[in-house]
């Protein structure tokens, strides 16, 4: 059996985790999060790939690549693009792949402009406000819904 391939997409400014507003986003780095997820995926016999960019066009390109690279599930933290990117939404719709939307902070307890997501209505689920644990929960779920 070929292992499932799960793609984790990290949006803008997530490369600054551990330095940027730790009172909101915590002290873990993106590398810390990716290492934990790699361990969980390995135990679940799944392949996992990570992608982070601050550029919307690069994120769109990577989402589109998932259509042909064997990806079976996407975990995405669109970060600030959650509230602005119709282009990323359209790319996710085009892939027809299941995905879970992740947010480290509770977007509903923050500024009102953060309360709207262009992704939530298409997502299998949304995890918001649980810090990096949200990524882990999303991955554990993805491993249970293998195709």
Features:
5 helices; 147 residues; amino-acid biosynthesis; five-stranded parallel beta sheet; alpha/beta; 3-dehydroquinate dehydratase activity
Provide the CATH top-level class. Answer: Alpha Beta
Mean pLDDT: 91
**Which regions are unreliable across 5 or more consecutive residues at pLDDT < 50?**
none
Strand pairing plus helix content: what structural class?
alpha/beta
Give the topology string: H per helix, E per strand: EHHEHEHEEH
Number of domains: 1
**CATH topology name:** Rossmann fold
Order of strands side by side in the largest beta sheet? 2-1-3-4-5
Catalytic activity: 3-dehydroquinate = 3-dehydroshikimate + H2O
Keywords: Amino-acid biosynthesis, Aromatic amino acid biosynthesis, Lyase
EC number: 4.2.1.10
Protein name: 3-dehydroquinate dehydratase
């Amino acid at each position: 059996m070929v292992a499932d391939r799960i793609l984790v997409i990290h949006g803008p400014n997530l490369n600054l985790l551990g330095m940027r507003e730790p009172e909101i986003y915590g002290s873990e780095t993106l590398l810390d999060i990716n290492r934990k997820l790699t361990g969980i995926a390995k135990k679940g016999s799944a392949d996992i790939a990570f992608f982070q960019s601050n550029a919307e066009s690069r994120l769109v390109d990577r989402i589109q690549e998932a259509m042909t690279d064997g990806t079976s599930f996407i975990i995405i933290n669109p970060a600030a693009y959650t509230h602005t990117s119709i282009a990323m939404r359209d790319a996710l719709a085009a892939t027809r792949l299941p995905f879970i939307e992740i947010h480290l902070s509770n977007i509903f307890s923050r500024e009102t402009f953060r309360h709207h997501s262009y992704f939530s209505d298409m997502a299998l689920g949304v995890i918001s406000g649980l810090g990096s644990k949200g990524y882990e929960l999303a991955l554990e779920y993805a491993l249970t819904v293998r195709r």
